[in-house]
Amino acid sequence: MPADKKRDFSCARLWDLLRAEADFVKEFACSPFHVGSICPSSRALASRLVSLAWDTAQSASPAVAANGLLIDLGAGPGPVTGALLRAGVAPERIVAVERSASFARTFTQRYRQVPLLVGDAADLRQMLATTYPATPVAAIISSLPFRAIPRKTASRILRELRETLIERGGVLVQYSYAWWLKDALCKEGFSPHESRLVFQNVPPARVESYVAELDHRPKLML
Ligand SMILES: C[S@@+](CC[C@H](N)C(=O)[O-])C[C@H]1O[C@@H](n2cnc3c(N)ncnc32)[C@H](O)[C@@H]1O
User: Fold this and answer.
1) Which residues line ligand 1 (CB under 6 A)?
2) Cα separation of 131 and 42, whole Å?
3) Per-residue model confidence (pLDDT) at position 183
4) Which CATH superfamily is domain 41-212 in?
5) What is the three-class DSSP state of 191?
6) Residue 188 phi, psi (nearest 5)
């Protein structure tokens, strides 16, 4: 690659990263409880989310893993979608879901080829029904900020995610700093599958994968 082009490329990439970071800080300042973090996921964290989603989906059902949708839930400016594209996933297999109109604009400018649904994770099935009436899901890769979401709302969202996976197949991958989340996921009918720690992120994060239990009965929290 000619040196000029190389410089152009890295300047464009640096500009893109700075803009995404500035957007993030602005969004966080406007609605800290919806954003839940002051900076986007690092490349290492986004790549780990994608590899864990792939490994868990493969062990749950290789056929669905090979063809199902990959849902980037709480996509923000799109670091997880970036990691999916770098891993070679076709853009039409990715569906980004984001509730903030401002993040949605940034996302669309960066990833024009990736479909984005603007709305609330609590309405996921309804959002998917219009555009993807019967397409299976390989994985929901969620960066929803559960530490900042009220517990009642969190339970509603988790129930919605489980129903989506029961209807369409697939697994859930989540990173979070909420200590109570694993218990809440088990209570809502998810079985933990695998857990990995990612140090190259601010702050270091735990990434976990879950499978939706088919015969779940509500458990009492003691
Ligand atoms: C911690 S940020 C993660 C953003 C990005 N995925 C990343 O890894 O950097 C959480 C994102 O979830 C979005 N979000 C929060 N609650 C949501 C909800 N109920 N439905 C859809 N998106 C939501 C926020 O707007 C924000 O973009």
Assistant:
1) 34-37, 40-41, 74-76, 79-80, 97-100, 103, 120-122, 143-145
2) 30
3) 94
4) Vaccinia Virus protein VP39 (3.40.50.150)
5) strand
6) -90, 10
Residue 139 pairs in a beta bridge with 70, 171
* 22 has a pLDDT exceeding 90: no
Long-range CB contact pairs, 26-34, < 8 A, 24+ = 26/102, 27/76, 27/100, 27/102, 27/103, 31/100, 32/148, 33/145, 33/148, 33/149, 34/99, 34/100, 34/145, 34/148
Per residue in 69-99, pLDDT (tens digit) is 999 999 999 999 999 999 999 999 999 999 9
- State which ligand 1 atom lies nearest to the alpha carbon of 100: 25
Q: How far is CA 78 from CA 71, 151, 159, 220, in A?
A: 12, 26, 24, 37
- Residue located nearest, by CA, to atom 12 of ligand 1: 74
Distance CA 156, CA 153 (A): 5
Ligand 1 center to residue 78 CA distance, Å? 10
Rounded Cα distance, 153 and 176, in Å: 16
- Of residues 4 and 170, more confidence is placed in 170
Closest of 121, 131, 125 to residue 158, by C-alpha: 121
pTM for the model stands at 0.89
Per-residue pLDDT band at 9 (split at 50, 70, 90): low
